[in-house]
Amino acid sequence: MRLPEIPQLEAFRAVVVEGHFGRAAEALGIAQPTLSHRIRALEEAVGARLFERGRAGVRLTAAGVAYARRVDGLLDLLGKAGNEARSAGEGLGGRLVVACSGALSCTPLPDALDILLRERPDMAVELQTRGLADQLGALLDGELDVGCTFAAMPAVPVGVGWRDLRCEPLYAWVSAGHPLAGEGAVGLEALRAERWVTLSERAEVGLARSLDAASRRMDRPPVEAETLDAALGMVRRGHVVLVAPDTAIVPADVVRLALRPALEATPRVLWREGTANPLVGRLLAVLGERRAA
């Protein structure tokens, strides 16, 4: 089957909307014989008759009904692709696909993306949650532009670049009604009798492993959560303590306590080397500026 051409698809949609070849040709600003030729060429490319023609006008065949379900979405996608390409060429837009391992709000990425969105109001951003191994594969396959993780990076595949971001201090998060809520700062020994909620290795392997030794010294086994908001939801109920970096998604009834001695975790940003997406370079530049600040 030959692939249809865009003018043929536009002719098809116009006939569907107008229900008449003459009115469809007028709507497109072309001659009716030209429109008829495009419809015939489309039917040959598809390999099925799409319209039944009669004195009362035209109506879709069963094949035409099935084809019409897809054509609108396809033309809309092509239109969006053209708009994104033009915006990227003018330095105004483009598309950026970013993934993080379950703790995006604990990293500088949201603030950096906010700066880019204000600079380029037409840019599109897609945020994903992926584990580290999935991020690395998606970067190499071109499905992902930027990744982020708290995991240590002893080795990465050839073709993937990475950089440490600023160190993030860890805090103990407790409910506002917790006996420790008014302390301001707390030592790990004071948390020994508490039940912790931690992010699982699947959610954020770096944070999970950095806290593993500390959580194993606690009297009770920890609760493992797949997402940060799930962990904070447990904290709100007053039965568990979360140790994690600062985050903008903390509920109003959860209190942050400094840890003594201080503990830190370092997020790392990853990207595909040699990428042609100029937004990646700009995002890395903004992250570098924030790291130096």
Protein architecture, described:
The protein is of the alpha/beta class. The protein folds into three domains: 6-89, Arc Repressor Mutant, subunit A (Orthogonal Bundle), CATH 1.10.10; 95-166 and 267-292, Periplasmic binding protein-like II (D-Maltodextrin-Binding Protein, domain 2), CATH 3.40.190; 168-265, 3-Layer(aba) Sandwich (D-Maltodextrin-Binding Protein, domain 2). It contains ten helices and 14 strands. Strands 7, 8, 9, 10, 11, 12 and 13 form a seven-stranded mixed sheet that branches. The N and C termini lie far apart (58 Å).
Number of E strands: 14
Which strand-content bin applies to the residues? 15-25%
CATH topology of the largest domain: D-Maltodextrin-Binding Protein, domain 2
Helix count, DSSP H or I runs of 4 or more residues: 10
Run of helices and strands: HHHEEHEHEHEEEEEHHEHEEEEH
- Tell me what the CATH architecture of the largest domain is: 3-Layer(aba) Sandwich
> Given the helix and strand composition, which structural class is it?
alpha/beta
Summarize the amount of helix as a percent range: 40-55%
> How many domains make up the coordinates?
3
Which blocks of ≥5 consecutive residues have pLDDT under 50? none
Give a short account of the largest sheet.
Answer: 7 strands, mixed
Apparent shape: elongated
CATH superfamily of the largest domain: Periplasmic binding protein-like II
Oligomer: single chain
C-alpha termini separation:
58 Å
CATH class designation of the largest domain:
Alpha Beta
